[in-house]
UniProtKB/TrEMBL annotation:
GO molecular function: 3-hydroxyisobutyrate dehydrogenase activity; NAD binding; NADP binding
Enzyme Commission (EC) number: 1.1.1.31
Enzyme class of the recorded protein, top EC level: oxidoreductase
Keywords for the protein's UniProt record, in alphabetical order: Branched-chain amino acid catabolism, NAD, Oxidoreductase
Lineage top rank: taxon: Bacteria
Residue ranges of every copy of the 6-phosphogluconate dehydrogenase NADP-binding domain listed in the record: 2-153
Catalytic activity: 3-hydroxy-2-methylpropanoate + NAD(+) = 2-methyl-3-oxopropanoate + NADH + H(+)
Active-site residue list: 162
InterPro entries xrefs: 3-OH-isobutyrate_DH-rel_CS, 6-PGluconate_DH-like_C_sf, 6PGD_dom2, 6PGDH_NADP-bd, HIBADH, HIBADH-like_NADP-bd, HIBADH-related, NAD(P)-bd_dom_sf
Keyword Acyltransferase: no
Name used for this protein in its record: 3-hydroxyisobutyrate dehydrogenase
Family, as annotated: Belongs to the HIBADH-related family.
């Protein structure tokens, strides 16, 4: 396939490199002038999109996505699949998709989980929203860049699935850290607490696979001084997107709202650049009347 790739940052660059390694002809563009070995450089986003069978975007946010789509949609070749892998708000994803659909293109919003490691290894999970025809055309590319793609329904539903998942993750991580901090103060050994909870009804990915307590459970960022992993700043971005979506859809998300406020306080008070599980040492240092 001839593929255009726009946004060659931490995630986009290795994803584009995997498409090149699989034998595709990739033309790329990034405002920062980033180059990737084997990717031909275009002079702007429209040139990267023109005449391609597939155009992939991996951008920071919904406003930038809307700007880039206003440039690349008019340049798109009829029937081309336009895959947006950025994490953005549901409304921007749906606006970009309808612009593309009106122009005879096949849009798919396909945010990812798996992070920079997954992007490099080609083991990302894609959560995709779009028509059956658009998903079918994107699927072989998902297979190269990832290990799993779930078709979640209409445009925007990939973003909806991503923020619902990450809202659960933010809430369960804070809850897991709270439980460790309480256990400490009750004199309950962390290993004993892990052994019980990880095999009882309190288990979760945060506890079992990504335990926030150093030296407990499988290797996790807690064992590496909370170097991310998944940065608290990115968790805050996703929690804010969940709250924007909840406002827009008039959905009650009391715990999501609390987790968002908690990560806002954490990030603005020394947590920036740390893994999102580093709320554990913060909670341990706090008192009941000084919870945030
Ligand atoms: P990044 O900031 O490293 O990359 C974004 C790139 O987009 C940058 O290189 C930037 O120069 C480029 N860009 C910005 N505006 C542009 C424009 N108008 N035209 C062309 N290029 C433009 O970010 P990243 O870590 O690669 O993340 C990309 C997206 O993936 C984000 O939406 C992020 O939330 C999501 N995501 C990131 C991770 C992660 O672990 N880094 C995990 C899952 C999802």
């Amino acid at each position: 396939m001839k593929i255009g790739f726009i946004g060659l940052g931490n995630m986009g660059a290795p994803m584009a490199a995997n498409l090149v390694a699989a034998g595709h002809e990739v033309t790329g563009f990034d405002v920062a002038g980033v180059t990737v070995e084997g990717v031909e450089q275009a002079s702007d986003a429209a040139q990267a999109a023109a005449g391609r069978d597939a155009v992939i975007t991996m951008l920071p946010n919904g406003d930038i996505l809307r700007d880039v789509y206003s440039e690349i949609v008019p340049a798109g070749q009829e029937g081309a699949v336009f895959i947006d892998c950025s994490t953005v708000d549901v409304d921007s994803a749906r606006a970009a998709a309808s612009l593309a659909e009106d122009a005879g293109l096949l849009p798919v919003d396909a945010p990812v989980s798996g992070g920079i490691g997954g992007a490099s290894a080609g083991t990302l999970t894609f959560m995709a929203g779009g028509s059956d025809a658009a998903f079918a055309k994107a699927a072989p590319l998902f297979e190269i860049m990832g290990q799993k793609a779930v078709h979640c329904g209409a445009p925007g539903n990939g973003q909806a699935a991503k923020i619902c998942n990450n809202m659960i993750l933010g809430v369960t991580m804070v809850a897991t850290c709270e439980a460790f901090a309480l256990a400490d103060k009750l004199g309950l050994d962390r290993q004993a607490m892990f052994d019980v909870v990880s095999t009882s009804s309190g288990y979760s990915w945060s506890m079992n696979a990504y335990c926030p307590a150093p030296g407990i459970g499988p290797q996790s960022p807690a064992d590496n001084d909370y170097v991310p992993g998944f940065a608290a700043d990115l968790m805050l971005k996703d929690l804010r997107l969940s709250q924007q979506a909840a406002d827009s859809a008039d959905a009650a998300t009391p715990m999501g709202t609390r987790a968002t406020a908690y990560y806002e306080a954490f990030v603005s008070d020394g947590g920036t650049g740390k893994d999102f599980s580093a709320v554990l040492p913060r909670l341990v240092a706090k008192h009941r009347d000084d919870a945030d």
